[in-house]
Fold:
Amino acid sequence: MGSLMDTQIMNIVDQPQSLEISNIPSETVGDVHVDHPRMTARNVNVFYGDKCAIDDVTLDIAEKQVISFIGPSGCGKSTFLRCLNRMNDTIDTCRIEGTIALDGQDIYAPHVDVVPLRARVGMVFQKPNPFPKSIYDNVAYGPRIHGLASRRAELDDIVENSLVRAGLWDEVKDRLGQPGTGLSGGQQQRLCIARAIAVSPEVILMDEPCSALDPIATARIEELIHELSTEFTIVIVTHSMQQAARVSQRTAYFHLGKLVEVGETEQIFTKPQHEMTHNYITGRFG
Ligand SMILES: Nc1ncnc2c1ncn2[C@@H]1O[C@H](COP(=O)(O)OP(=O)(O)OP(=O)(O)O)[C@@H](O)[C@H]1O
Ligand SMILES: [Mg+2]
Structure:
């Protein structure tokens, strides 16, 4: 896993910014398009009230690939990620312009029901958030509401299969009836991943999924992301350069709501084209 040496990437997190807004390119540097897009975002603007949080972002998300969103705190990574399954709909002041499509269909079209959309584009949050239910019922929840199993045996199969794919089965198979909240943090996050994949999503969105975990649990989740990418399209927001380098094939660098640069992860970390990307990945700003 990961073709970049950790030592090639300086670990910088949330350093103060001193860049001028005028340095931000009006056009994203690098190729925003891919050959086989699963999702497409075109000229997306996002506002919270009058404040613009995402400014004219165009980007393709390739199928069965991991793409990382990186950039300083407040640059709009989570905002843009949440637009991909209409999670921002829950924020009253939030307004979106532009087009976002899944398999060519506009996800903001008036007839679109967000419940099946969020099954097709699942989400894993920063803090593991198992429901206050048993391990089994956490994973069975989505298949039940979406009517994916007609018999108990079918549901059992989906639960087992999802837990196996999330790398958690061996640790929980003898205590499926116990509360999900009784697991360790790393196990809870794998349970949340099992819950997300139980409804066979096409895309999984992950917003800093390891930031609440220790290095061992983090390594386990990174391994899992790598394995899942053969089957799912994954978008991950991370503050760790090393993590982006280890898990993703493509990386997008955001700054102050703009998508500054996007490219192959290796190229972004070894030969960034834009000065701002270079400054961010090497820890120098301005
Ligand atoms: N619910 C909200 N209401 C108003 N403004 C918001 C809301 N959520 C985010 N913002 C603003 O939008 C901008 C982008 O925030 P966002 O959370 O997307 O950044 P981020 O890149 O994910 O940051 P971090 O790395 O700290 O998580 C910020 O200026 C933030 O203050
Ligand atoms: Mg965020």
Q: What stands out?
A: The domain at 26-123+201-282 is CATH 3.40.50.300 (Rossmann fold). Residues 77-78, 207, 237 surround magnesium ion (ligand 2) (CB under 6 Å). The chain is about 30% helix and 25% strand.
